[in-house]
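User: Run a structure prediction on this.
Assistant: Running it now.
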Amino acid sequence: MAAHSGDRQISRRWPRSRRGMAVGVAAVGATLVVGTAGAFQLVGPDREPAVERAVGHGATAGSPTPAGGAALARVAGGLDNGAAGVTMVPGGSNGSGEGDAATGTGIVSSAALPGVGAWAAARVPADTGQVILVSAPDRMSTNNTVTLWERPAETAPWTRHGLPLTGRNGSGGWTVSHHEGDRQSPIGVFTLTAAGGRLPDPGTALPYEYQPRYFVAGSGDLDDPMSAAFNYVVAVDYNRVPGRPPSDPARPLGEQAGGDIWLHVDHLTATKGCVSLPQDQLASILRWLEPGSHPVIVMGDAPSLAAVNLS
């Protein structure tokens, strides 16, 4: 849970027409279907590491790598079930995001998302081309490893983009039944359809809500790390209407289910349920996001993510 309130004025026009939406809930709960969600894509900003090409079934180490700023394949058809999609073969055995093999050139090989078991893989939509994978050592962990994955088509292998990043999550660890005030991060697979922040748009293709008065945290002092927490945010579609700006107060599953779960700037401590990263890394991810790639975030502790069935 992360309680964020304030000015609701939207400073950038929000798209009125969307392909559809889906509200994801905790991994073992139901998915409240409102329609179809959007997604993201990686570009090559100045501070972004080089792309690594996954070598899997039907690919070789010599396969061409998409340019950093090139768009991933866009799928015109919509999804009917949001968080529930194609069932994929579980990949990776240690949840580290490192893949199952690597070539002599340092290219990560992964035919399926590494460390992601059947329950989570089945919730990744078939037309998703980018995944943010957040994996913590156990359910009590407040630190995690974040890796970025992309693929040009449903049948293509996953490519790890850059090196693993270090993030933080809720001070209460991870849960499959998140509720308001528990300070735990929800385990699950959620779409990513909107962004915003106190700072101007860093160059993302997602709808961006520039709201200096809304995204306020901490004392405001320059030496207070909390003051920068919401400089950039990506709304995680847990108990919210996908596609709406991060400031939107609607909680389709009710207030007690919690909400306002964001990917935001690290403030050097564990969060109230969000996932945080250093500001430069989050800005790079924002420039990577592209709605046409239907991005999702797969998040939780490694044993839970790797399970065949989550309990």
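The first strand starts at residue 22 and ends at 23.
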